[in-house]
Amino acid sequence: MEFSPKEFFLKQIEGKIRSYVAQGKESLHKVAKYIKTVSTKYGIPSQEIRQVITKVREETVEPFLNPKGIYRPERLRRFEDLCKELGFK
């Protein structure tokens, strides 16, 4: 399956966001800069970035907010910090 450059980099952005939220190994600034640079260079509109962010929240943040199950509140903090850095609320 071939992706257009836009589709390819949209997948890359999703992976960067998921990785940052789940592990937080890269710096917030570096991840945000990558997303801003790539989305500008490849014409990825903010609404598509917002869709990715919503998907990541549903799949990578919310399942880990149950205090009676797997509880990882740091994921929510990293997610919110990244959204703020990118200009999303």
Structural class: mainly alpha
N-end to C-end Cα span: 34 Å
Question: Which parts are unreliable, with pLDDT below 50 for 5 consecutive residues or more?
Answer: none
Percentage of residues assigned to helices: over 70%
Largest sheet: none
Averaged pLDDT? 94
How is this structure best described in words?
The protein is mainly α and 89 residues long. The protein contains 4 helices and no strands. It has helices spanning 5-23, 28-41, 46-61, 73-86. Helix 2 (28-41) packs across helix 4 and helix 3 runs antiparallel to helix 4. It is globular. The protein starts with a helix and ends with a helix.
Features:
89 residues, mainly alpha
Précis, in short:
The chain is mostly helical. The protein contains four helices and no strands.
How are the SSEs placed, and which strands pair?
Blueprint: H1 5-23, H2 28-41, H3 46-61, H4 73-86
